[in-house]
Specification:
About 20% of the residues lie in helices and about 15% in strands. The chain is α+β, with helices and mostly antiparallel strands. The chain has one domain. A hairpin with a 6-residue loop joins β2 and β3. The longest helix is centred in the middle third of the chain and has 12 residues, at about 195-210.
Amino acid sequence: MPASVIQRIPWRGRRLRVIGPALLAAVAAAAAPAAAITLEFDYRFDASGFFGTAEAPSAARRALELAARSFTAFGDELAAIQPGAADHWTAAVTNPSTAQPATVADLAVPHGTVIVFAGTRDLPSATLAEAGPGYYQNPSGSAAFLDAIVNRGQGASAADFGPWGGFIAFDTHQSSGAPRAWHFDVESPPIAGAYDFYTVAVHELAHLLGFGTSTAYWADVTGSQFDGAAARQLYQNPVPLSGQPPQHFDFGVTSPPFLGVQPQPSLGRTIPLGQRKLFTPLDYAAMADIGWSVPPELLELPGDVDEDHDVDGADFLAWQQGLGGAGGAPGDVNGDLAVDYYDGWLIRHYLGASGYDASPLAVASAAVPEPAGGGAWATALVMLTARRRWHARQGRAGSCRR
């Protein structure tokens, strides 16, 4: 299927220049993204208080909510699910703290929002975490309301995945019964002997958003290869997959467009102790292939603000100069048309990296238009919940379970 890459010619601050307030405001108004998504975490099932509170968030909560930033630049128009006098439904999801089915009657889901129910429990065997999209029960109402429930107004689910939300659960104990060793601090490298919580969270959220768990994903799988247009173009071949069923990139897969040592993708099968993996351009290309509207910045060398094919102090300086700006001010690394802490965090992670020009991908890939409401409801069946488990044994990720 065609890749869904946002087509725009943003002024991204690739040339360092001084911007007056009036010009900056005009650029912001002209270049503001048509949409972006929000991952809204709902902690009602967090029975242990693992994630703290809004007033006193735990380190785990801070890491989880930073992990969500990997996806919030997606420019999708997700229709609101707004129950009313004649419009009703029941959101159904796995309770992350008990593994039992849970339901929420007439859950309201704002426009552009994906709701994620988060929790923890002692997961089986060496499982590190588990996540998947939710499903629905007892829908009734107008065609537009039903269309929003089924696929958020995105059209055919075989081409464009649009969930209302899902769940994510993290492990609390190792197989031995000892507490699971997590590294929560996103400002420091993971310590030896602990799994990086941020890394696991990003991987799991991608499964909730459809990688390995959606009809749109399987439409791009041929045998043991992922053959989506954007991923194939970036990788220069179909991307090998691993597992039965094949729901992760294979062990030897690395992500272009890096020179030298290429990073392993987040959506590979392994996660070593004491290491951090970020979402790579190859991961983002795969998300574009299952229908998410990915900014072109995320398909290029991350953090290369001045487009000289390396990430160095000049890029960090550009971010500092643009900090707080909007409309594509200098330092916008993730393409959300705002310059904030997260952009600087990405630059710091990739300092010293070099790569080649991957921008032709953004030019060659046509965006999938966001359809209006329509016939998705007429052809859709009730979506089955999909779960996947990531196993720590020998650093392997297990297959998704349905």
